[in-house]
Automatic annotation (TrEMBL):
InterPro entries: Flavoprotein-like_sf, RNR_Ib_NrdI_bac, RNR_NrdI. This is Protein NrdI. GO terms for molecular function: FMN binding. Probably involved in ribonucleotide reductase function. PANTHER family: PROTEIN NRDI. The gene is nrdI. It holds the Pfam family Flavodoxin_NdrI. It comes from the Bacteria. Belongs to the NrdI family. SUPFAM superfamilies: Flavoproteins.
Amino acid sequence: MSESQTDALSEPLYKAEGAAIGAVVFFSSASENTARFVDNCDFQDEGINVYRIPLRPKDPALNVREPYVLIVPTYGGGSAHKAVPTQVKQFLNNPDNRQYIRGVIASGNSNFGEAYCIAGDIISAKCKVPFMYRFELMGTPEDRTAVRQGLLDFYTKAREPVAATV
Ligand SMILES: Cc1cc2nc3c(=O)[nH]c(=O)nc-3n(C[C@H](O)[C@H](O)[C@H](O)COP(=O)(O)O)c2cc1C
């Protein structure tokens, strides 16, 4: 495969209504909990593009070139070095993708105790971005409201012009 094919800019899974104010990038395994959370958030209605990191190595790589918040489930069964899914590591190992991350939201299962949602702590520390929110499995309606509103506020504030200093 040629370099231009591997680096081709990806299309969002759900394209923002009107002019985009920001983006969400998410990963979800075959159990699809995170995918259900994202589907039910309808981010595209708020002007947020939604991109999905592919599950299978054969799928074309995701290339995102706009600011995004990453939504990631925690894996590893309590082991920190396996907590971030391989597919997410590969996506972030591309510096052209990594430079646009602005925050991370992690999901998990509270049965894992201290390892609950630790993928968020790890990515936050490595990429130096805020760990914005955590939720369990496919989230609750309250989680969806909090994340939708939180991202809207985050991207709206990011667009406000910096006040002139005198
Ligand atoms: C093998 C395995 C290991 C997991 N390890 C953790 C963990 O260390 N910490 C945690 O909070 N959740 C852990 N989980 C729970 C998942 O993060 C949770 O089920 C999540 O909703 C999966 O999202 P997905 O269906 O979108 O892939 C684990 C789940 C599985 C199947």
